[in-house]
Specification:
Layout: E1 21-25, E2 33-34, E3 40-41, E4 48-52, E5 62-71, E6 76-81, E7 84-90, E8 100-110, E9 115-119, E10 132-140, E11 153-157, E12 166-167, E13 172-175, E14 181-185, E15 195-205, E16 209-214, E17 217-223, E18 235-238, E19 243-245, E20 250-254, E21 265-273, H1 280-284, E22 307-310, E23 313-317, E24 338-342, E25 352-361, E26 366-371, E27 374-380, E28 392-395, E29 400-402, E30 407-412, E31 420-430, E32 442-445, E33 466-470, E34 479-488, E35 494-499, E36 502-508, E37 520-523, E38 528-531, E39 535-539, E40 551-558, E41 570-573, E42 587-589, E43 594-598, E44 608-616, E45 622-627, E46 630-636, E47 648-651, E48 656-658, E49 663-668, E50 675-684
Antiparallel strand pairs: 1-10, 2-3, 4-9, 5-8, 5-10, 6-7, 6-9, 11-21, 12-13, 13-21, 14-20, 15-18, 15-19, 15-21, 16-17, 16-20, 22-23, 23-31, 24-30, 25-28, 25-29, 25-31, 26-27, 26-30, 32-40, 33-39, 34-37, 34-38, 34-40, 35-36, 35-39, 41-50, 42-50, 43-49, 44-47, 44-48, 44-50, 45-46, 45-49
Length: about 675
């Protein structure tokens, strides 16, 4: 054997066989002892013992398996090397004095200068848990340490780390006191690398305020609604910002307040994701189908809500885009409201043609699918009960073209039809041809052109007044054909859009609260050609009694030519071409008045033979239909109530051959006949 020394001196050579075992008595490294003769270390909760490995003369640099001989109700011991957490020892609870040997399930590579620390999770004077330590054993091995690949998404099951009471057959941690906490070491052995992580916790119970700390320093907090102690009441609590973690950190979750004597919270699991982005409080402030303020107009560079790739499908979780259902991880989509999904949220999305599938339950019979506010078709389904086991997967019959920057909307059926949406998935069927063109959105701040709302950066647009925007005020704008979008809130449901004083139509929206987090992005349902010298006006109908609302931003959204695609129907919302009803997404068509609808407003409309229908309600019994000013026939209908329940779809008896350049006019019956018109619908006939 040849060896080299670093300094002169007297050396001894230890002939140590592979597989030798070294023992470090616990009492040599901890002051508090117990047992009949004081032969065990009485390691207290929240304390540790540290041993230099070179204390045993037989130690040599190499790879070792570490075990601890211990007893008592304590079931976990954290292991640190030179102050860095490397893993967790798990064991079964035993009686006092009933010692067993518990092993760390990974290999340690140790040198003469290393120190090993055993840390006992828990809190002194709060019930423990307690345990005695007899000795620490190092057994040399020819196995080599395995370095796990970094994981971008790590799920931490609470029961694996909680040292107190477990529920549901040991599957959830019962944090049943505001003095207790869930304490989790950040372990390199579990795929952690130093990074910024998004935090999500699944919990239920009566304690509403939660706090997350790293190494004792608070990094997150949140409020939740109290709920019952059952798995179906689990809610998903989402961190409002990313937190920095590295191996060796201790992550703790606490519920510091209680509302009742029966206090406590169950924690199922915590998910840490280094790839999911969160845009501050704007992500938390989504209400219903609202687009978060920070993402409006900048969908491609926005955050990464809950998305995945499963079996070749792009999956978008419903609850990430809409308010969650209390009893399950799904979106509780209300009648007539929308789940709005920027398709580029999924980093694997590419331009192409996709089938759209919705996984849902409830008594809802259909969903309307829209792209950038335009109807692409309906998904029909059979009514079911409520619950995850009642879910059905239903697909839009016709594939649709999608491009980066598009907004996919899943709209719930109105009229008392409810249901939960688990997820929306896209399955690519072919690649789209052509170039997506310029997808830039042009933006104007409402408060720059009208009185600013007192406490928020938005225009406090009053009833009967107008915001007028010279497009030249954006120095980069040069002109083109665009959709006009308005980001707004409040109980206002309609806004009239004008170009250079000429009426272009109305934008309708759902009522929301008055705060920046309740903004909705709503689009005029027809494209408008504009130049840099034009002005765009937003007029708010009403009087001193309302309705009211704030206008945050006005957008011009580019219209890009698409390859024609066959759709189940072409739907033209009537309120985009007339005076919008104050109560419903429909045009309030007066006797003898007309709606003129250019068919080319639908960018994918193709020449062909169509059956024409008008969806309407009210006392009106007849519409006259004209094409390019020439009579084409009459549509007859039965009088009905006003509102969604009174809507009927009534067809023209003859078929019409139509081209994108045609203009269809709907004329309201003269006399004492009134009603609202929801849409003109064209159904292709082969």
């Amino acid at each position: 054997m040849v060896f080299q020394t670093e300094e002169p001196g007297i050396y001894g050579l230890v002939n140590q066989a592979m597989g030798s075992e070294l023992y470090y008595p616990g009492v040599d490294y901890y002051d508090r002892t117990t047992g009949d003769n004081g032969q065990y270390a009485d390691l207290q909760p929240g304390e540790s013992l540290t041993l230099p490995v070179k204390d045993q003369p037989g130690f040599a640099q190499g790879n070792y398996i570490l075990s601890v001989r211990t007893c008592g109700p304590r079931t976990k011991l954290m292991v640190l090397v030179n102050g860095r957490v490397v893993g967790m020892i798990n064991r079964e609870s035993t009686d006092w004095g009933q010692m067993d040997l518990a092993e760390l399930p990974l290999v340690l590579s140790l040198t003469q200068d290393d120190e090993i620390t055993l840390y006992a999770p828990g809190q002194e004077n709060q019930g423990g848990p307690y345990g005695w330590v007899d000795y620490v054993q190092l057994k040399e091995t020819d196995r080599v340490p395995e370095i796990p690949a970094p994981e971008s998404r790590i799920t931490l099951e609470a029961e694996d780390y909680y040292v107190y009471e477990l529920e549901q057959n040991g599957t959830v941690a019962n944090v049943n006191s505001p003095y207790r906490k869930l304490e989790i070491p950040i372990l390199a052995s579990e795929g952690f690398e130093e990074n910024d992580y998004h935090f999500t916790m699944y919990t239920t119970g009566t304690m509403r305020r939660w706090i997350v700390c790293v190494n004792g320093v608070q990094v997150l907090e949140g409020e939740r609604a109290g709920s019952g102690y059952e798995m179906k009441y689990m809610t998903k609590e989402i961190g409002s910002e990313r937190i920095h973690l590295k191996p060796g950190d201790i992550l703790t979750v606490e519920f510091p307040e209680q509302d009742t004597d029966n206090c406590g919270n169950w924690v199922d699991r915590i998910v840490l994701n280094s790839r999911r982005q969160v845009t501050g409080a704007d992500f938390l402030n989504r209400v219903g189908g609202r687009i978060p303020v920070a993402l409006a107009g900048d969908f491609e560079s926005g955050g990464q809500p809950h998305v995945s790739m499963e079996d070749g499908k792009l999956v978008y979780q419903g609850e990430a885009y809409y308010k969650a259902q209390n009893d399950s991880p799904t979106a509780d989509l209300q009648p007539g409201e929308q789940i709005l999904i920027p398709v580029s949220d999924n980093g694997r999305f590419r331009e192409g043609t996709y089938r759209v599938t919705v996984r849902s339950c409830g008594n809802r019979e259909f969903f309307r699918v829209k792209v950038n506010g335009w109807t692409a078709g309906n998904i029909t389904r059979k009514e079911t009960g409520y619950g995850m086991t009642e879910m059905t997967e239903d697909t839009l019959g016709t594939p649709i073209e999608l491009r980066p920057g598009d907004i996919l909307a899943i709209e719930g059926q109105t009229g008392g039809k409810y249901g939960w949406v688990d997820d929306v998935s896209l399955t690519q069927v072919q690649t789209a041809d052509g170039n997506a063109g310029d997808r830039s959105w042009y933006t104007w701040e409402g408060e720059d052109f009208y009185t600013k709302q007192k406490d928020n950066p938005a225009a406090d647009l009053q009833p009967g007044e107008t915001i007028t925007i010279p497009l030249a005020s954006n120095g980069t704008f040069t002109g083109g054909t665009y959709y006009i979008g308005v980001l707004s809130n409040g109980n206002r449901t309609a806004m009239v859009i004008r170009k250079n004083g000429e009426r272009m139509g109305s934008i309708t929206r759902n009522e929301t609260n008055f705060d920046m987090g309740s903004m909705t992005l709503d689009v005029l349902q027809r494209p408008v050609s504009v130049n840099a010298g034009d002005t765009i006006s937003i007029f708010a109908p009403g009087d001193e009694s309302g309705p009211f609302g704030w206008v945050d931003k006005v957008y011009l959204i580019p219209v890009n030519a698409r390859n024609p695609q066959s759709l189940e129907e072409y739907r033209y919302p009537a309120y985009a071409y007339g005076t919008a009803s104050m109560y419903l997404a429909a045009a309030d068509l007066q006797p003898g008045e007309a709606l003129e609808i250019p068919l080319g407003d639908h960018v994918s409309f193709v020449e062909g033979q169509y059956r024409i229908a008008v969806i309407s309600n009210g006392s009106r019994e007849r519409f006259e239909i004209r094409v390019n000013g020439q009579p084409a026939g009459s549509i007859l209908r039965k009088p009905s109530d006003y509102g969604d329940n009174g809507m009927s779809s009534d067809k023209l008896e003859r078929l019409l051959y139509l081209k994108p350049s045609d203009v269809v006019t709907i004329v309201g019956q003269d006399g004492d006949f009134f009603g609202w018109v929801s849409a003109l619908v064209l159904e292709p006939v082969e």
